[in-house]
């Protein structure tokens, strides 16, 4: 099974000054050799953080980290098939009064479409998505 990484995992790694290569090596050691990808929605979340930097130096450091992330981890585009999955999941959830945060819904739909799990620190939101394998990181 592959793994779609959620932004929170990368944000924590960046804050801890953990090299991307170290993060990927740990994931491989703990979860075996598996394909790791990012959703294009995760890219939005990460780039948003860059644009919210408090200083020019912080923005430069974040840009460098993100450039390393994007060079090391493939980004999957959000497709019509994923949108169809997201629409169905969202409609079913709302019938029961459950609202899944939009970005997490789209990241979850990306994982479902590929038959992958989501690697995240945010268990609460992703648990709302039926049939989604969740790996707490």
Structural features, described:
With 137 residues, the chain is of the alpha/beta class. The protein has one domain (3-136): 3-Layer(aba) Sandwich (Rossmann fold). The protein contains seven helices and five strands. It has a five-stranded parallel β-sheet. Strand 4, helix 7 and strand 5 form a beta-alpha-beta unit. The longest helix has 17 residues, at 56-72. The protein is globular. The two termini are 16 Å apart. The model has no long low-confidence stretch (mean pLDDT 94).
Give the C-alpha Rg: 15 Å
Identify the strand order in the major beta sheet: 3-2-1-4-5
The quaternary organization reads as single chain
What is the domain tally?
Answer: 1
Mean pLDDT equals: 94
In the CATH hierarchy, the third-tier topology is known as Rossmann fold
Helix content: 55-70%
In short:
By secondary structure, this protein is an alpha/beta fold. It has a single domain, classed as 5'-nuclease (Rossmann fold, 3-Layer(aba) Sandwich). The chain has 7 helices and 5 strands; from the N terminus they run βααβααβααβαβ.
